[in-house]
Every structure is written in C-alpha cells, then in structure tokens.
Design brief:
The chain is an alpha+beta fold. It contains 6 helices and 10 strands. It has 2 domains: 11-145, Nucleoside Triphosphate Pyrophosphohydrolase; 157-232, Arc Repressor Mutant, subunit A (Orthogonal Bundle), CATH 1.10.10.10. It starts with 10 loop residues before the first strand and ends in a 17-residue tail after the last helix.
C-alpha cells in the first residue's frame, strides 16, 4: 500500500456566509468567535471537515450546529488557501454562501453562539480573510442573480413589488427607478399577481405576487433587464 508519508499535512475547514432579507434590508449573519486567536471577534460560521464527510455534508452540518438552520439554499463559493490565512496552523477553507428569508428561520437560530444579523453595508470587520469571503460571495450572487432566480430564496412565498425592489437594490447596492423597475418587471410575465394585499405600510396596500417558476424556465434571462451594468459583474 502506497502512503503519502512525505507530503505536508494541513487542515481543511468550511466557512458559511449567510445572507438574509427581512423584507426591507439585506443582512448577513455573524457570530462571536469563541476561542483564540481572535477570540471574541466577529466571524463567519465555520468548522473543520471530518475524515468521513463530503464538503457539502460538512457545510450543512456546521450550518445546522451553529445556527439550527436546515434545508436552506447553500452553494459552494471558492477555496481560500493563503498559507498565512490562519496564524495557528496551515488551513484551507472552502467557503459556502446561504440565502434565507429571515422571518422563516428566525426561531431556529441557535443562541449558544450569539449569532447576530448585521446590515451588509454596516457589518463589523471580520477575522482572518472572512471579509474577502463576504466580498467574493456578494460578487457571485450579483452575477448569478442576473441569470437565475436565486434571490427569491431570500423572499417569502408571496411578496410585494416594493420588497422585491428593495432586495435588488440591496444586493446591487444601487437605487433603481421605481417606474422603470415595475415596467420591466411586468413585461417579463414571470410573476403571478395575487388577490391579497400587504397593508402594513399604507391603507391602500400593495398587492402580493409569487414567482411563476414554469415561465421562468422559458424566459431564462429575463431578469438581466433589472441588473445595473451586468457586464461589470464578473471580477
């Protein structure tokens, strides 16, 4: 039996970047690191991969153990392997990002790790290279949202046009003209208008909508119409 006796040994970890939408703002879920180095500072959720785990299994396990979350949208992002990224030991981290509707999962959050939501525009400085992970996740989401309906993972089953516009503005960090947004949105035919209204912000209220997933497959690139400067989304 051949053994890799002369090869360097190193640790492999998984870090999860969790984005949530509360109906008005795009947020990120962070925890306080419980041990040194950098103990007590803000961090992404992470942990080491066991010998008998796949990467996806490890990511889902870590997400569930640290937050109580299960069955959420979770996608592998990138591998981070700078030899100096962890001062304790050579560690390669596989980053994943998750997208959730905050209100759907807020009761599941595990209090043990003091997880806290921050606005993506006001999050604190993070340990190691976690800031770079967050920025890479933002870029990936901006690009994918132009081609796939992944942002609807952040929305409840029924939502209003103002909520959808707020979400796109938060993801792309830009202001979108209201009338232009509604016109382009309506022209896609991708949304189903419901009879119910959300009257939480006004007496007149705003109609609820839901995504027509069948039509979306036939009009795969329809949401490109909403994206500011899509040619600049790949970094």
């Amino acid at each position: 039996m051949i053994e890799y006796t002369k090869e360097s040994q190193m640790l492999v970890a998984v870090d999860c970047i969790i984005f949530g939408f509360d109906g008005e703002n795009l947020k990120i879920l962070l925890i306080k690191r419980g041990f040194h180095p950098e103990g007590g500072k803000w961090s992404l959720m992470g942990g080491f991969i066991e010998k008998d785990e796949s990467l996806d299994e490890a990511a889902n396990k870590i997400l569930h153990e640290l937050t109580g979350l299960k069955g959420v949208y979770l996608e592998q992002l990138h591998a981070f392997g700078n030899p100096l990224r962890d001062p304790m030991e050579r560690t390669i981290s596989i980053a994943y990002f998750a997208l959730i509707d905050i209100h759907k999962y807020e009761r599941q959050l595990n209090d043990h790790y003091h997880a806290e939501w921050f606005l993506t525009t006001e999050m604190p400085n993070l340990i190691f290279d976690h800031n770079a992970m967050v920025e890479a996740a933002k870029q990936r989401i901006r690009y994918k949202a132009a081609l796939h309906p992944i942002l609807f993972e952040l929305l409840p089953r029924k939502f209003t046009i103002p909520q959808l516009q707020s979400l796109y503005e938060g993801v792309y960090n830009t202001r979108i003209d209201n009338r232009n947004f509604i016109r382009k949105l309506t022209s896609t035919g991708l949304l189903i208008k419901l009879e119910e209204k959300d009257k939480s912000n006004s007496k007149k209220g705003a109609f609820y909508f839901k995504l027509d997933k069948k039509k979306y497959k036939a009009k795969f690139q329809a949401f490109l119409n909403f994206i500011p400067n899509p040619e600049n989304l790949i970094s």
